[in-house]
Amino acid sequence: MVEVINESRNGYHQLDQYLSASTVTFSLKDVDTGIYRLANVPAGVTINEDGSGYSVYYQFNKKTSSKVGRYVGEFKIVNERGEYIV
After folding, report:
1. Which is higher by pLDDT, 2 or 59?
2. How far is CA 65 from CA 27, 35, 38, 40, 54, in A?
3. 46 vs 7: CA distance, rounded Å
4. Stretch 16-45: mean pLDDT, rounded?
5. HSE-CB for 16 with a 13 A CA cutoff
6. Are 37 and 28 within 8 A, CB to CB?
């Protein structure tokens, strides 16, 4: 789970209104081989418990977390403002 905020000078905290209507996917790449274990699988968006904004998340299961290794994960957020990699 990763909290998503807009930290630019123009539009600070304005990403929230777009995030709830975005397509969010998750990818997981093996650091040693460069091969994606997961590629663009659907991820979710949730409102933070304190109501301060949104977080994106991916729920692992036994199949997706059974191989030991070093991985880099990334969320791709696509909406009317463009594509963002977190």
Report:
1. 59
2. 13, 15, 10, 16, 25
3. 19
4. 89
5. 12
6. yes
